């Protein structure tokens, strides 16, 4: 999932760990906390939700909101393995091409109606309806027979989704796809109530009807989103009555409100970690969450002609001191490749591309741009309200100026606007990140960088890379898949397709009054188990 110029699977043993975050040592909290209902969980959302529609979610912040309102057939557990959600069980048939799901009995939508297999089929067809113009359904659902025809408007239904009986649905794929269950954890596969959701984008509270542990109560634009407990939730009513998500774009404001007892949980920017660690009371509330994520700088060959020359891309790659940015500025592990720790096929010993300003200058000159002379003006775009994004952008620009003589300007952009511009391929140079949607290298390689991927915002093309990915995507031999993906990753590095800079880790702080915050490699899970002391 695109996190931004900063939801989720053949699995190998993972580096990462899941946590259950319970209340820890008492801190110097303001008495403000006692003024708030003991049944309200308060944590900020960093920007206004980009959408209220699971079929249109692309970002982590909005995805976190959605997972409390809606659910799919399967999800990831605290052990980072696929587990039943709306489905109580499933079988794999036809040599990996068909999945037959049996729904749990008695699950109800927020409006009280019971969920059936027809709702699963309707939701998938609704989320691939061209009227919705989903930016994600083609990527996550197109392995299902008939989805491409549905998205293109050639069919009103999806032939590969069959209702066997009221509690059984069968999904048939075009080919064996070992990672397919992971794709079904993404929001565009969530199940919606057809009497509420329109064919176009969900835009109101009344239209937002799911099966999750919480219901959408109200939205005050650019101020706050409020959720209320679903007392009929099939796994038991939540322990808290309400979730308040104030929209707070400024990182310092979020941290200060946490310190004052006005928020119960906060995600830190990297620049704030050292100060928190220096305070014994606050440090006891700090929890690291390993994340399979890569932060990068993208070079869009479709928008900036010099990037079509591999020598220019390599020059940019070798001129940016990624190790310094990662270890000294951001203080996270440097990314040597495109597949991060925690994902099958990650290589700790990967050499990567060296920082070599001398060779970078030579390559740029060979491409016809000595000391940057003749290069058209270039702007690096990053997400507003995220200091880490700005640190990455400014550091990269500084290195390009010092090591290549290139003057690059910067531009911060509001989050939804940035996503829309990126989707349209309009950003020539931008910093971003990719957080795993499922723990398979396909999600970082084929999914993002093949020629026909709608997520290929770099306009990158390499037939051999495409061939290796196509073979790996459908192989049921795990060792062979890993080897093929690693060859493909090597090609991305040789081609300097984009510039990976550092791998991800979230740092969150949880109030001593809160228990039951669950996390896994994909971050914070739904708040169904959260309690307030």
Structural class, by secondary structure, is alpha+beta
Number of helices: 17
Spatial gap, N to C terminus: 33 Å
Shape: globular
CATH-wise, what's the superfamily of the domain at 290-506?
Answer: Dipeptide-binding Protein, Domain 3
Low-confidence stretches: 3-37
Biggest β-sheet strands, sense, barrel = 4 strands, mixed
Q: Measured on Cα atoms, how large is the radius of gyration?
A: 23 Å
The third-level CATH topology of the domain at 290-506 is Dipeptide-binding Protein, domain 3
Q: What is the average per-residue confidence, as pLDDT, rounded to a whole number? A: 92
Highest-level CATH class of the domain at 290-506: Alpha Beta
Describe the structure.
This protein has 17 helices and 21 strands. The chain is of the alpha+beta class and 533 residues long. The chain has a domain at 290-506: Roll (Dipeptide-binding Protein, domain 3). It has a 4-stranded mixed β-sheet with strand order 2-11-10-9, with no helix packed on it. Strands 5-6-8-7 form a 4-stranded antiparallel β-sheet, covered by helices on one side. Strand 9 (214-220) and strand 10 form a beta hairpin. Helix 11 packs antiparallel against helix 13 (387-404) and helix 16 runs antiparallel to helix 17. The longest helix has 18 residues, at 387-404.
Label this structure with key terms.
alpha+beta, 4-stranded mixed sheet, 21 strands, 4-stranded antiparallel sheet, 533 residues, disordered N terminus, Dipeptide-binding Protein, domain 3, single chain
């Amino acid at each position: 999932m695109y996190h931004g110029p900063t939801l989720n699977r053949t699995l190998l043993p993972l580096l990462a760990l899941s946590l259950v975050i319970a209340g820890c040592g008492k801190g110097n909290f303001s008495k403000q906390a006692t003024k708030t209902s003991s049944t309200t969980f308060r944590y900020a959302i960093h920007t206004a939700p980009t959408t209220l529609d699971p079929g249109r979610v692309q970002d982590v912040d909005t995805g976190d909101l959605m997972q409390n309102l809606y659910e799919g057939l399967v999800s990831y557990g605290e052990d980072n393995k696929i587990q039943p959600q709306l489905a109580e069980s499933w079988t794999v048939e036809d040599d990996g091409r068909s999945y037959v799901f049996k729904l749990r009995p008695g699950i109800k939508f927020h409006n009280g109606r019971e969920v059936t297999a027809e709702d699963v089929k309707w939701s998938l067809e609704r989320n691939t309806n061209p009227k919705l113009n989903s930016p994600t359904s083609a990527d996550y659902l197109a392995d299902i027979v008939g989805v491409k025809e549905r998205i293109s408007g050639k069919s009103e239904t999806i032939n590969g989704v069959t209702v066997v009986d009221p509690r059984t649905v069968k999904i048939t794929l075009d080919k064996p796809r070992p990672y397919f269950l992971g794709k079904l954890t993404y929001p565009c596969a969530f199940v919606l109530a057809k009497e509420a959701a329109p064919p176009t984008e969900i835009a109101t509270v009344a239209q937002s009807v799911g099966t999750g542990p919480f219901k959408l109560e109200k939205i005050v634009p650019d101020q706050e989103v409020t959720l209320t407990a679903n007392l009929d939730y099939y796994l038991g009513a939540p322990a808290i009555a309400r979730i308040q998500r104030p929209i707070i774009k400024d990182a310092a404001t979020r941290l200060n409100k946490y310190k004052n007892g006005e928020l119960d949980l906060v995600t830190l920017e990297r620049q704030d970690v050292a100060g928190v660690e220096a305070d014994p009371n606050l440090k006891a509330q700090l929890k690291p969450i390993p994340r399979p994520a890569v932060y990068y700088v993208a070079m869009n060959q479709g928008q900036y002609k010099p990037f079509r020359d591999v020598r220019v891309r390599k020059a940019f790659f070798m001129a940016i001191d990624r190790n310094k940015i990662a270890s000294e500025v951001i203080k996270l592990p440097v990314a040597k490749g495109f597949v991060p720790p925690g994902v099958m096929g990650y290589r700790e010993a990967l050499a990567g591309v060296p920082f070599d300003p001398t060779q970078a200058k030579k390559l740029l000159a060979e491409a016809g741009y000595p000391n940057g002379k003749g290069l058209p003006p270039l702007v690096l775009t990053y997400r507003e309200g995220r200091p880490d994004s700005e640190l990455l952008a400014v550091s990269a620009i500084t290195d390009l100026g010092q090591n290549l003589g290139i003057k690059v300007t910067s531009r911060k952009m509001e989050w939804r606007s940035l996503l829309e511009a990126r989707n349209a391929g309009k950003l020539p140079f931008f910093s971003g990140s990719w957080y795993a949607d499922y723990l398979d290298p396909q999600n970082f390689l084929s999914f993002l960088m093949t020629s026909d991927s709608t997520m290929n915002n770099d306009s990158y093309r390499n037939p051999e890379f495409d061939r290796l990915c196509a073979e790996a995507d459908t192989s049921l031999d795990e060792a062979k898949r890993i080897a093929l993906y690693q060859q493909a990753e090597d090609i991305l590095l040789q081609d300097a397709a984009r510039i990976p800079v550092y791998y991800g880790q979230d740092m969150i702080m949880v109030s001593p009054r809160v228990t039951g915050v669950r996390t896994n490699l994909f971050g914070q899970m739904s708040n169904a188990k959260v309690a307030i002391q």
